[in-house]
Specification:
Structural class: alpha/beta
Strand order of the largest sheet: 12-11-10-13-14
Bound molecules: FE3-S4 cluster
Shape: globular
Largest sheet: 5 strands, parallel
Number of helices: 17
Distance between the termini: 56 Å
Strand content: 5-15%
Radius of gyration: 22 Å
Length: about 425
């Protein structure tokens, strides 16, 4: 790999052992993928250490002893409980104490304690074309596709990118690897794609087909000017759930797809497919692992909710009461929760009995089967979950072991009030 004189000096330890170690990890990553050089990044979304993974926080403590600081704006992904209140999610005390250690360490390292999967909703908007390093599949696909910033799946290497400001030049950082591979003509009407759940199903269906490649979606004309940010968030998260998709294009919508030709960079699609109502129905059926008509846990906010989504939900919950037998979580980030507190929305939602939770979500919490077994807690923590997100549904089934049903926000709210699922 071609390194600059400055990078070589760092690797020789001229700026201390900590930076030498951190850069060495980045170089090793680049060499494993034959990257020709390193590039400077403008932003990092960092994979926060979670106490549900044994030893995860030890690694942070080890690197923090060098006194290194993030050299680019750096946000953090989710943790395993709401740092403001252990009782909100019921995390075992021991895990909460261990988890809280990251807060001080992150502050000392100049890392911003956002603890969310949707940092862009807080205003972290890297410029189109800029190189960044990101963890969290739903954030990666958003940065690449909707913003046109360039990132690979950074995983644990985001720690070292934040501290060095570097990442290998490879994968999605290179223009030639950002062209579409599969063409999807979406033969659906606006009425078929009117909720986050519908877009989630569309992403799930397409992600299964493309695997780790890049789908290009062509929407009918009636969608022009109507696409909501929250729909694209749901689409991206689902694409990265059934597949390991890190980028998509929508012709006329996303920045690298002003035309079909541009989306494919002048090449021909490997395959062209139509998407019909039947495909969404099949995706819905695949994600409903239960026929249960009763529910004891409901989650909205995967990926973490925007202020607008909280506002809409507050409108549905105003004056209503959640059934005693149901836990209703809405997951978001602290910044948006604070905004909702000041505007009065939080009060409306909490009066209904629902909980607005920051920093985490069900699948990132202590409710995982392995953690519950370790702490002698009931497994699974709840019997039937209802959500509008295929990402949450998929991971809850696999990691928490509960049965799952999928429904749009209106059915979720009705079920929260009555305890009965009517879809
Ligand atoms: Fe975010 Fe948890 Fe979903 S981290 S994307 S709310 S699985």
């Amino acid at each position: 790999m071609k390194l600059t004189d400055k990078e070589k000096a760092i690797l020789q330890g001229e700026q201390g052992e900590g930076l030498q170690k951190a850069l060495d990890y980045i170089v090793q990553l680049g060499e494993a993928f034959d990257a020709e050089k390193l590039v400077d990044i403008t932003y990092c979304h960092y994979l926060a250490e979670m106490s549900i993974y044994k030893g995860d926080i030890d690694i942070l403590e080890d690197i923090s002893k060098y006194g290194l600081k993030a050299v680019v704006p750096t946000t953090t992904s989710t943790l395993c409980y709401d740092l403001d209140d252990t009782k909100l999610t019921g995390i075992p005390e021991e895990l909460a104490i261990e988890q809280y250690k990251v807060v001080d360490l992150h502050r000392k390292m100049n890392i911003e304690p956002t603890y969310t999967c949707t940092p862009y909703l807080l205003g972290y908007i890297p410029a189109t074309g800029s190189y960044i390093a990101s963890a969290e599949s739903s954030a990666i696909i958003w940065f690449n596709s909707v913003l046109g910033a360039k990132t690979n799946r950074g995983g644990i290497f985001t720690k070292f990118s934040a501290l060095t400001g570097k990442t290998p030049y490879m994968g999605y950082l290179m223009d030639e690897n950002r062209k579409g591979t599969h063409l999807f003509n979406i033969n659906l009407r606006l009425k078929n794609l009117k909720s986050e759940m519908d877009w989630s199903l569309l992403g799930f269906h397409i992600g299964k087909i493309v695997g780790s490649e890049i789908p290009v979606l062509v929407l009918p004309d009636e969608f022009k000017g109507t696409i909501k940010q929250e729909w694209l968030i749901a689409l991206g998260a689902a694409l990265a759930t059934s597949g390991s998709v890190a980028m998509f294009h929508i012709v006329g919508i996303t920045p690298e797809a002003p035309s079909l030709k541009a989306a494919f960079q002048g090449t021909k699609p490997k395959i062209t497919l139509n998407v019909n109502e039947k495909d969404l129905k099949e995706a819905w059926e695949e994600n409903n692992t239960s026929k249960s008509t009763t529910v004891d846990f409901i989650l909205l906010g995967c990926p973490h909710y925007s202020y607008h989504q909280l506002k809409y939900l507050a409108g549905l919950l105003e004056g209503k009461k959640i059934k005693d037998s149901v836990q209703f979580w809405i997951t978001t980030m602290r910044g948006i929760k604070m905004q909702a507190k000041w505007s009065g929305l939080l009060d409306i939602i909490e009066k209904s009995g629902a909980k607005v939770i920051s920093d985490t979500c069900a699948v990132e919490s202590h409710m995982r089967v392995s953690t519950c077994r370790q702490f002698g807690l009931k497994v699974p923590q709840f019997n039937v979950m209802l959500t509008d997100s295929v990402k949450q549904a998929r991971y809850v089934k696999d990691l928490i072991g509960s049965e799952v049903r999928l429904a749009d926000i209106h059915s979720c709210v009705n079920a929260a009030i009555t305890g009965e699922i009517k879809i």
